[in-house]
């Protein structure tokens, strides 16, 4: 009888230690279970008070391009790129140094076919995309809808790609915030249902509500560009995050 109790006690201790080891291992590897692009740590703050460039709370989706450019120049690449080939040569090094992050499709968003930009952003902008996706899908569930993904249509541009775009888009400024890796466009008239392009009736309104709420929190600057059917968004970055960023 004593031997049986002793056996059960040893078994209980062994299983308890195993459970503790599993919990510790799960906590340790959890960051590595998410996509690589979300693993770069960035600081958070009261963006309305502690952003690196001035920003105030607003419910309007009409921030001027000059204001977005100011935030891009403060929080983005210190050296922009003249040509696409120059950027592609430097991209791997910038990613290894955590200055830029390579964007890929995920459960929150889809990267559209990019003809005049490259799928790279500063880490703060990538984490902003994730936060938009989390809040958007939360609101979709609250409305009894499935998890649609939004579509990113333009990201980082070089002078060369900006010039090419200007031939087709009269709104494209030569000194665009897109050149600094802080800025991206999201279409507001199509979404992804799994891997299928969809045009759901209620979803654009829910997405707009998501962006309005996050603009109140000063998470970004945003302008609704009707000619291009997109939201032009520049991330707001905390002063602390900039202070901890590696040199380009």
Summary of the model, kept short:
The protein has 248 residues and is an alpha+beta fold. It has helices spanning 2-33, 47-50, 65-75, 84-96, 123-142, 159-166, 203-216, 239-243, and strands at residues 101-102, 109-111, 120-121, 150-154, 183-187, 191-193, 196-198, 220-225, 230-235.
Describe this structure as you would to a colleague:
With 248 residues, the protein is an alpha+beta fold. The protein contains 8 helices and 9 strands. It has helices spanning 2-33, 47-50, 65-75, 84-96, 123-142, 159-166, 203-216, 239-243, and strands at residues 101-102, 109-111, 120-121, 150-154, 183-187, 191-193, 196-198, 220-225, 230-235. The strands form 3 sheets. It has a 5-stranded mixed beta sheet with strand order 2-4-5-9-8, with helices on both faces. It has a two-stranded antiparallel sheet with strand order 1-3. It has a two-stranded antiparallel sheet with strand order 6-7. A hairpin with a 4-residue loop joins β8 and β9 (230-235).
Distance between the termini: 70 Å
Helix content: 40-55%
Strand-residue proportion: 5-15%
Continuous helix count: 8
Sheet/helix structural class: alpha+beta
**Mind describing the biggest β-sheet?**
5 strands, mixed
Tell me the number of structural domains. 2
Instruction: Kindly state the number of beta strands.
Output: 9
Q: What is the 3D form?
A: globular
Topology:
Layout: H1 2-33, H2 47-50, H3 65-75, H4 84-96, E1 101-102, E2 109-111, E3 120-121, H5 123-142, E4 150-154, H6 159-166, E5 183-187, E6 191-193, E7 196-198, H7 203-216, E8 220-225, E9 230-235, H8 239-243
Parallel strand pairs: 2-4
Antiparallel strand pairs: 1-3, 4-5, 5-9, 6-7, 8-9
Helix pairs in contact: 5-7
